[in-house]
Q: What sequence folds into this?
């Protein structure tokens, strides 16, 4: 009986640790203020669980996010924006941010097609035979909307790619959210390269199929297009 209880306790402990290790991006940060959860961020249907199939439509805005909607936040080109986390980042891996301009109202748009361009990426620090991930412990991520971004309504997409088990194909974990924003006072830039999501990533991309441990990596290649501008 004692052995059975010990095994049960161990399984509960392992499961609870695994759940706590997951997270989601539920809110935007604007003017240094955190907005209410899911006011300007589209809700998802998988709670804190990651997406692991890079060919899934859930790679776009998380599970259920392509057909969900939220309110749209007015911002200006050149402003700082951010996302908060439901928990601190507890898995190694980069953070990336994309924008996609809607052809009209973003509220009813699913983000399909080659419309996404990357505006921010945050990776590891690699030096003297070691690799470190400053993302660990972060509870938010802030970035700047490029001042050359044309005015319009956009989806803003954030992802953290957890790479702790990514030495095997299909084991990278994607924690994704999409917010809805209207960019005012925009510039006359031509954002790009434009990519489709899903479509921009392969399960064997070097930044997705990635062994963090041995041999120690000497570089990290971000998946997807380069940052614009």
A:
């Amino acid at each position: 009986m004692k052995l059975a209880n010990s095994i049960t306790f161990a399984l509960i402990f392992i499961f609870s640790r695994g759940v706590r290790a997951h997270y989601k991006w539920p809110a935007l940060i604007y003017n240094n203020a955190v907005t209410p959860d899911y006011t300007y961020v589209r809700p998802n249907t998988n709670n804190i669980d990651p997406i692991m199939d890079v060919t899934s439509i859930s790679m776009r805005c998380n599970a259920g996010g392509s057909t969900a909607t939220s309110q749209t936040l007015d911002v200006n080109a050149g402003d700082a924006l951010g996302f908060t986390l439901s928990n601190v980042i507890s898995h190694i891996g980069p953070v990336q941010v994309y924008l996609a301009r809607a052809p009209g109202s973003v509220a009813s748009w699913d983000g399909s097609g080659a419309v996404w361009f990357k505006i921010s990426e945050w990776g590891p620090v690699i030096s003297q035979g070691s690799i470190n991930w400053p993302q660990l412990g972060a509870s938010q991520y802030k970035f700047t909307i490029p001042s050359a971004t044309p005015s319009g309504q956009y989806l803003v997409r954030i992802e953290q790619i957890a790479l702790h088990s990514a030495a095997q194909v299909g084991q990278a974990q994607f924690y994704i959210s999409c917010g809805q924003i209207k960019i005012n006072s925009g510039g006359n830039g031509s954002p790009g390269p434009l990519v489709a999501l899903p479509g921009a990533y392969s399960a064997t991309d070097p930044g997705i199929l990635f062994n963090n441990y041995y041999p120690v990596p000497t570089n990290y290649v971000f998946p997807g297009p380069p940052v614009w501008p």
